[in-house]
Amino acid sequence: MENLLELCSGRYCGRIKNESSGWSDCTACPVGYRSDDLKLCQKCVDSPDLYEWMYLGFMAMLPLTLNWLCILIYNHKWSSPAVIIQMVSSFFESFTAAILSLLIYEPRGSLTLLSCKVVQISDWYTVFFNPTIKYTTTVFCAQEAVYPLYSIVFLCYLFSLAMLVLLRPIAYSLLPKPSRNKLFTKTLYATLYFHPILVAVHAVCAGLLYYSYPYLTMFTTVLATVTYYVKCDAMTLKKILDKDLSKHIFAMVWHLLTLCAAAVSIIISTYTFLTWKNLLFLLCTPFPMIFFLLTERFSDPTNIAQEMDMMNRNTV
Prior knowledge:
Layout: E1 17-18, E2 22-23, E3 33-35, E4 41-43, H1 50-74, H2 81-104, E5 132-133, E6 137-138, H3 151-174, H4 182-231, H5 237-242, H6 245-270, H7 287-299, H8 301-315
């Protein structure tokens, strides 16, 4: 019977099976379903692979990473109660949001997910593939073909924002009165601005991010680390060791772990299995930091200006 059905037009249109009337007309598949090769809506029963889990982890960690970066830049005293409480609070906000998001999606109450496999980049943008019958009638078949990789990120950001509103005032009340300064509110407002921006970026660029997030992670973590060390005036190994050593070491470890995660994602997308030979690429992750520390003095504007003055004096 299924083979006798006329195939639906459009890439993502499908037929829904009804117990009473059989197969429906061609339409969008329900949430949690996707049309197969016969254009029949089938329930998503696959499990996300490692690359997809790392993508979800990347999207969930974005608010936390941006929040921690703001906290470290705005607050110069690493061991102050304001810094510690803010970082702990932001971690629990993001962690709780991620756990709640996983528990809500099927199988409900579990930290696992049932998903549909991503086949191509158009799976993220089904709204652009609604077929037009005889150039007159449009069949709207927009659906979440990559369920739940698209919608779960929105839910995670919503929970993260809700946890921010609930937990950050409590964290502020735990601070000693002398530590309650404008820097605390600056990081709070920065985080409030980040969430709608991240939601907008995900809504438009989710498919592009899915395929490029390892490379974007490498680029942004190097850029963020350089920005951090420049803002903190710790651009040489001597300055890193002189003051705020634990703060700089934390930023460096976070930088290396992020680069390692990005490298693993690239390896997974390139090779079928992880082997010890593939993982040797992880040995390259310290190179950007080493290169920055070794070459910073050659690009420091102050040093360049001093060298130019010396050249001018020698010429005269």
